[in-house]
Each structure stands twice: as C-alpha cells, then as structure tokens.
C-alpha cells in the first residue's frame, strides 16, 4: 500500500490505467466465457432438434428455446428469406424456374449476411483483450522507467547511492511492470482461447448454412 | 422478437460481468493488502555513524590515550577535571586525612562527617582509578609493542593510537564498500597522511588480484579519508594496512 501511495503521479496514473484495463478485460473475459459457452450448448441442442424435426415451420415455432445459439439467427434469417421467395412463387406458376434459382441465391445471401453479423457479434470486445495483452506490459514498462528516473533524481539529490536509497524507488517502479504483466497475461490467454472457440462456432455456422441451402434446394428442385 | 430477447440478455449480462470483474479485483487487492504483499517492511534510511569503538572516549586522537580500555575506566577518564585534581596527590595524603579524622571525630557534626566521608571515598576512587589506569597503560604498552612496534614519529603510544584510529576508520568505511569476487582477497596498501590530516599518497603494494575488492578498498580509503584528523605532533604519518574482507590489520610500515 505504502509502495503505491509513495509513488509519483505518473506512476500512479499508469497503475490506475492498468487497473482499469485489468477490470475491463476481466469483465470481457467473463462475458465472453458465458456467451460462448451458451452459444455452444444451445447450438448443439438446436442441431439435435433441427435434424429430428421434419418441417421448417415446426422448427421456426420452437426456435426461441435456443436463443443463444448463432445458428438460430441463421435459421431465422434463412427461413424468413425463403418465405419471401416462396410465397409470391406459389401464386404464379409461370416464372417458377427463374425465381427458384434466384430464391436459393437470395437465401444463400441472407445466410451469409447473418453469418457475418453473428461473427461480428461474437468477436465484439475481443479486440480489447488483444489490445490489453499487447500494450499493458509496455504501459507498465513506461511506469517503471519513469519511476526509476525519479528514483535516480532522488539519488542525485541525496548524493548517496547506498542500497537503502536506491531500493525503495526501484521497488515502487517495478510494481508498474508487475501489474502490467498481471493485466496482460490473462488477456492474452483468454484472447487465444476465445479465438479458438469462435472459430469452431464459425465452422458450425458455415456447415449449417450449407445444410440449410441443400435442404432448400432439394425441396424446391423436388417440387 | 428473438433478437430483442438476446439483446436485453446481452446488456444485463455485460453489466453483471463488469461488476463481477470489479468485485474480483477489489477482493484480490484487499487480499494482497491483508497478506502484506503490498506492505513490505518499511526501509528506513539511516545516517551512517562512524563509531570508533576502540578509542571511544578520546576526543582528539592526537592526545595519545591508550586503546583497548574497559568501559569503567573510560567512563572515569571522560570526566576530565577529577583525575587532574586527584592523580598528582601523593599516597601519603590519604592516610593523613584518615589520621585527622580519628582525632577530631567527637567534635564533628554529621554533615561534616558526611562531607569527609565523601572526600575519602573520592580519594580511594581516585587511587583505584589510578591503579586501573596504570595497569591498562602497562598492558597497552605490552600490546602495542607487540603489534605495532615502530609506527609513527611521536612515540609508541600515541603513534599506535593514531594508526589504530586510522585502521578503525578504514574498517568502518570498508564495511560499507566491501565487495569481492574471489574467496580470500587481500590488498595491502601504504597510506601517507600529511601533517594537516590530508591523505597525500596511497600506494597499493600488493594485491591478490580481485579487482572488485581492490575497488572496494579504494572507495573505503576515499570515504575514510574525508574524516581523518591530523596525525600527532605535526608529523607525517605513513603506514601499511592489509585489507581483508573480515577486517584490516596493520601491515609493516615501510
């Protein structure tokens, strides 16, 4: 405590900054952890449900149960686009073939857009973790360098370079680097972890889109 | 509808995790404070005092008192006027006083008696002191003639005392600067101190080759030489000192 209160104003500011970085990055870690966890669990349950049910409208009525899964967003988007394509199609039979092909393209585009927006949603705030991981050691180092500069000024003033004069200044300077590392290490670890988890979710979304388009194309072609 | 539900969930969830994170940080901080990780023992910066243990009561090293005094003797000597008054008194004086006392005992008041008693005690104290001093002097002579035979120009006692004084200063300084890289480093140095107490010459006569220790010795000499007093009798003092990490011994002079 004394070591922090005794430090200079710049070192204190650096410590404060690092502390806020740490608080925010841990908040993001917790938030992302539960978000990704739920997305994964709901996706698994949704896929089970998807393969068991026969009809899209039955799935659409039940889809709210898996609200945390990005796949449900994809499904909703794809289904609503499909409805828009199919409904005018059922009225006039003449232009069926041309709209069929266009309809699949539309659904595909809708799915791609939904996938992109879901990726954005999942990756939101992760950049802060990356920033914290890469910059807070440097911020801490800055605090240390500044602290040691002031310590040496103190030595110059007292005129003695005994360990008793040098040691407290260096100790309070090194605290900044320590806190920088404390903030950075979990941030980097969490960033890598979530990157991996989100990549898995993106793969799931891609394969789900392909499956969805296959089903749509099969049904339209089979009509 | 689905997206709306998810959004509300996200907002509250983000809030909750932020608060949780802040609480965790506070808890960790309090834990560290409690554990004392952030409260290292206060480092107090103390002024270094050069306490000359060997010649503690000697104000001026040139006055030539003996070294290696037991504490009771040194305490007495520091009270300056009393020994000056008592020491010259011949041994017969005390017995005379005693005889006088026996003759006039009846007529005396109690206060006068007490006063005489005090004087008597003082006399015996002085004699005791004298004998202690004498004993110490002879002891010192023996010691100094063994250890530091021919040191400075001003007689064995004063010279040995000045050499011891310098040695003690150097030891104090070496305690601060001491550092060495080899096992048993040894550096012998010849110091010349001019009549005004300035270190006029310093020559490293022999060294075991430990550069760190050599540097430490140089620094110790520099540090100590700031506070040297002038050698006795306006003479030039020259002496060899052998520096070892454990201490300094008087080397052979020239």
What would you say about this model in short?
The complex is a heterodimer of chains A (223) and B (254). Chain A has 223 residues and is mostly helical. Chain A has helices at 2-5, 9-52, 56-62, 70-91, 96-123, 126-158, 163-222.
Description:
- The complex is a heterodimer of chains A (223) and B (254).
- Chain A is 89% helix and 0% strand.
- Chain A has helices at 2-5, 9-52, 56-62, 70-91, 96-123, 126-158, 163-222.
- In chain A, helix 5 (96-123) packs antiparallel against helix 7.
- Helix content of chain B is 54%, strand content 11%.
- Chain B has a 4-stranded antiparallel beta sheet with strand order 2-1-3-4, covered by helices on one side.
- In chain B, helix 4 (91-104) packs antiparallel against helix 5 and helix 6 (156-177) packs across helix 7 (211-225).
- The longest helix of chain B is centred in the middle third of the chain and has 38 residues, at 110-147.
- Chain B starts with a helix and ends with a strand.
Number of strands of chain B: 4
| Largest interface: pair, residues per side | A-B, 29 and 26 residues
Range of helix content of chain A: over 70%
CATH fold-level label of the largest domain in chain B: Fusion Protein Consisting Of Minor Coat Protein, Glycine Rich Linker, Tola, And A His Tag, Chain: A, Domain 2
Low-confidence stretches of chain B: 1-8, 65-87, 148-159
Q: Helix/strand-derived class of chain A?
A: mainly alpha
Any idea how many domains of chain B? 3
Topology order of chain A in helix (H) and strand (E) letters? HHHHHHH
**Gap between N and C termini of chain A:** 76 Å
Q: So how many helices of chain B?
A: 7
Count of separate DSSP helical elements of chain A: 7
Average pLDDT confidence of chain B is 71
How much of the sequence of chain A is in beta strands?
under 5%
- Order of strands in the sheet with most strands of chain B: 2-1-3-4
Percent of residues in beta strands of chain B:
5-15%
Mean pLDDT of chain A: 83
């Amino acid at each position: 405590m004394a070591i922090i209160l005794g430090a200079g104003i710049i070192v204190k500011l650096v410590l404060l900054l690092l502390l806020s970085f740490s608080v925010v990055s841990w908040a993001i870690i917790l938030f992302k952890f539960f978000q990704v966890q739920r997305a994964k669990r709901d996706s698994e349950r949704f896929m089970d449900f998807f393969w068991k049910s026969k009809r899209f409208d039955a799935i659409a009525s039940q889809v709210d149960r898996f609200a945390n899964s990005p796949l449900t967003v994809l499904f909703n988007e794809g289904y609503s686009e499909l409805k828009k394509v199919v409904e005018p199609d059922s009225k006039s039979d003449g232009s069926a073939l041309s709209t069929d092909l266009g309809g699949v393209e539309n659904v595909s585009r809708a799915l791609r857009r939904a996938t992109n927006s879901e990726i954005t949603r999942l990756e939101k705030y992760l950049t802060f973790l990356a920033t914290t991981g890469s910059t807070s050691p440097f911020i801490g180092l800055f605090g240390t360098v500044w602290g040691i500069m002031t310590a040496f000024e103190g030595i110059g003033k007292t005129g003695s370079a005994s360990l008793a004069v040098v040691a407290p200044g260096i100790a309070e300077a090194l605290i900044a680097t320590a806190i920088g590392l404390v903030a950075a290490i979990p941030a980097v670890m969490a960033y890598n972890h979530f990157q991996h988890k989100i990549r898995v979710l993106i793969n799931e979304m891609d394969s789900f889109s392909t499956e969805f388009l296959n089903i749509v194309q099969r049904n339209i072609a089979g009509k | 509808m689905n997206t709306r539900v998810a959004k509300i969930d996200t907002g509250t969830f983000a809030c909750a995790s932020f608060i949780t994170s802040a609480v965790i940080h506070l808890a960790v901080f309090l834990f560290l404070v409690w554990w004392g990780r952030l409260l290292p023992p206060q480092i107090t910066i103390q002024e270094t005092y050069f306490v000359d243990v060997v010649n503690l009561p000697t104000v001026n090293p040139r006055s030539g008192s003996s070294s290696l005094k037991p504490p009771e003797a040194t305490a007495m000597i520091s009270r300056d006027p009393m020994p000056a008054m008592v020491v010259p008194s011949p041994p017969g004086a005390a017995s005379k006083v005693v005889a006088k006392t026996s003759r006039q005992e009846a007529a005396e008041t109690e206060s006068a008696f007490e006063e005489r008693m005090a004087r008597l005690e003082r006399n015996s104290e002085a004699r005791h002191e004298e004998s202690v001093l004498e004993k110490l002097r002879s002891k010192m002579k023996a010691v100094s003639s063994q250890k530091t035979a021919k040191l400075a120009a001003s007689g064995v006692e004063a010279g040995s005392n000045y050499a011891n004084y310098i040695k003690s200063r150097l030891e104090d300084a070496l305690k601060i600067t001491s550092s060495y890289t080899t096992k048993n480093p040894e550096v012998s140095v010849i110091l010349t101190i001019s009549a005004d107490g300035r270190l006029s010459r310093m020559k490293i006569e022999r060294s075991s080759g430990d550069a760190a220790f050599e540097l430490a010795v140089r620094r110790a000499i520099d540090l100590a030489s700031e506070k040297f007093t002038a050698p006795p009798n306006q003479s030039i003092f020259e002496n060899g000192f052998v520096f070892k990490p454990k201490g300094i011994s008087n080397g052979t002079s020239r």
